[in-house]
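During the second half of the funding period, the structural biology subgroup turned its attention to how the target accommodates small molecules. The most pressing case was prephenic acid, which had performed well in the primary screen but for which no bound structure existed. We therefore specified the complex as follows and requested a full 3D prediction, including the ligand pose.
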Amino acid sequence: MANHDTLFSAPIGKLGDWTFDERVAEVFPDMIQRSVPGYSNIISMIGMLAERFVQPDSRVYDLGCSLGAATLSMRRNIKVTGCEIIAVDNSPAMVERCRRHIDAFRADTPVSIIEADILDIELNNASMVVLNFTLQFLQPDDRQRLLNQVYQGMRPGAALVLSEKFSFEDNNVGELLYSMHHDFKRANGYSELEISQKRSMLENVMLTDSVEVHKARLKHAGFEHAEVWFQCFNFGSLVAVKAGEAK
Ligand SMILES: C[S@@+](CC[C@H](N)C(=O)[O-])C[C@H]1O[C@@H](n2cnc3c(N)ncnc32)[C@H](O)[C@@H]1O
Ligand SMILES: O=C(O)C(=O)C[C@]1(C(=O)O)C=C[C@@H](O)C=C1
């Protein structure tokens, strides 16, 4: 049973900026499940995408892996040989728990867990890359550079899965979906205080983009094909494919 997230249930005197520290890592499975509508569907479907896209003798990257949920889902579904999964996160608390988590399951595909900034990782020979709710935590100025690096490190026919909290160009729709997300959190047992304290901690750290901005960035990076494949309220996921024949 995952530890229950009560981190923000009591009033906090001085709300600092959000970090992925020990306390967050400890309750993370419960927190993300109760905070991100569709999270477990996305994790399962990343496994299905891995079955389709991962090529023999290639690399698979999970960038901002947290506790390794997407890595485990991909590893369970990779049917080809000679692959390696590289899971990267810059939070020591996440990386330490991720190592334990991955070691608890057996599988043929090896996993390397690296504690690093994803901007410093040189990708190569990738047939699949996952950014599952990670890009939103990079400085907006760094986002294009990262996507360029991802595209450059991919083989023809490779896929990027980019999941994010979205903002919307239409204010009416934006407010509706934002408020549906608020309802979703309430329905999952979070109080008004918990919701508002977390929201103000995330305010300076998690700057969201619209689907249009994501698509423009992906196109600029070189991706010939990109589309939203999942959305629930203001959370969703795009798949972007590099043109060419998979070998
Ligand atoms: C919302 S969580 C990702 C959830 C995870 N991908 C999953 O599917 O369960 C965001 C993660 O990105 C990591 N992160 C944020 N910025 C990073 C960076 N520049 N380099 C590496 N990891 C980063 C955080 O430490 C955190 O673990
Ligand atoms: O927007 C919110 O309220 C969230 O809780 C979102 C979000 C995310 O999208 O990564 C933020 C931090 C936690 O890691 C879990 C969920």
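Two results from this model are relevant to the next phase. The helical segments are 22-35, 39-53, 69-77, 92-103, 140-152, 171-187, 192-202, 211-221. The chain has a mean pLDDT of 94.
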